[in-house]
Amino acid sequence: MTAEQSDPTRDGDATAEPGNGITRKKLLKAAMVAAPAPFLVGALPALAGDRTPSGQSLDPTPFCDDGDDPTPPQMEGPYFKPNSPQRTTMLDGNGTRLVLTGTVYGLACRPIANALLDFWQADANGVYDNTTYRFRGHQYTNAQGAFTLTTIVPGLYPGRTRHIHVKVQAPGRPILTTQLYFPGEPRNATDSLYNPVLLMSVQTTPTERRATFDFVLNVNQTPGPTPTATGTTPPPSGTWRAGVVYAVGAQVSYGNLNYRCQIAHTSQVGWEPPNAPALWQQI
């Protein structure tokens, strides 16, 4: 496949926030702009980018407010592979360095610790590696729900604008499969899958590009510590246990069912086989 080339270090126009209706999201954003900095410290979670480097308004990455706007899903596409390595750096070839940071939230605006993020993307020439695991990797959010991915700006290929694929899953909850997009890409206007709500905020420095995006999962939350999955006590019978390092292909039983490990990981409460289909395949 021959990739169509364009300058991946360019910053262009971004899509402005659509609509003129007043929502709580917009009121929160307005309050953040109008209030002096001392009044904002600790008051609200940070937005992952309201503007492009040129100062134009961006629809923010889905902002946790009333639970009316979790991050929208998108198709998985044909190039997903299970069993990606656990890592935060995917510098597997030449290209413009990209550092993506963000936080995974639930509907109550609380960070979600130990959320699984599984990333995959094309290389600088717009080609996916379907043989090994170049530009593929998974990681978990830290105690503050934050993540960092170091990779390169993916290349273009026929029919698509520039994008990064990702699966996100809170412990014991359904998987969100979606895609992240770059502002200012000409093909954003012609790609039928493109969604401006999934735009990253991207800045260019002399050595790399820096992007931010916050995920909002459709996970109900209550005040207090981030809730863990229900029904996570190991069953009376079964070989699965928390705190065990499982390699790809390892087999366990949980209840009356058997499972095969799809991604090497250290097990923890909330990632029991029935609750973590990204990690375990029923056999």
Give a structural overview.
The structure is a single chain. This protein is mainly beta and 283 residues long. The protein has two domains: 24-216, Protocatechuate 3,4-Dioxygenase, subunit A; 245-282, Seminal Fluid Protein  PDC-109 (Domain B), CATH 2.10.10.20. Helix content is 5%, strand content 23%. The chain contains two helices and 14 strands. The strands form four sheets. Strands 1, 4, 7, 8 and 9 form a five-stranded mixed β-sheet that branches. Strands 3-2-5-6 form a four-stranded antiparallel β-sheet, with no helix packed on it. Residues 1-61 and 226-234 have low confidence and may be disordered.
Show the helix and strand layout.
Elements: H1 24-34, H2 37-40, E1 97-105, E2 116-120, E3 136-140, E4 146-152, E5 163-169, E6 175-181, E7 201-204, E8 209-212, E9 215-216, E10 245-246, E11 251-254, E12 257-261, E13 265-266, E14 280-282
Parallel strand pairs: 1-8, 1-9
Antiparallel strand pairs: 1-4, 2-3, 2-5, 5-6, 7-8, 10-13, 11-12, 12-14
Region (Disordered): 1-22, 51-85
Keywords: Dioxygenase, Hydrolase, Oxidoreductase
Organism: Micromonospora sonneratiae
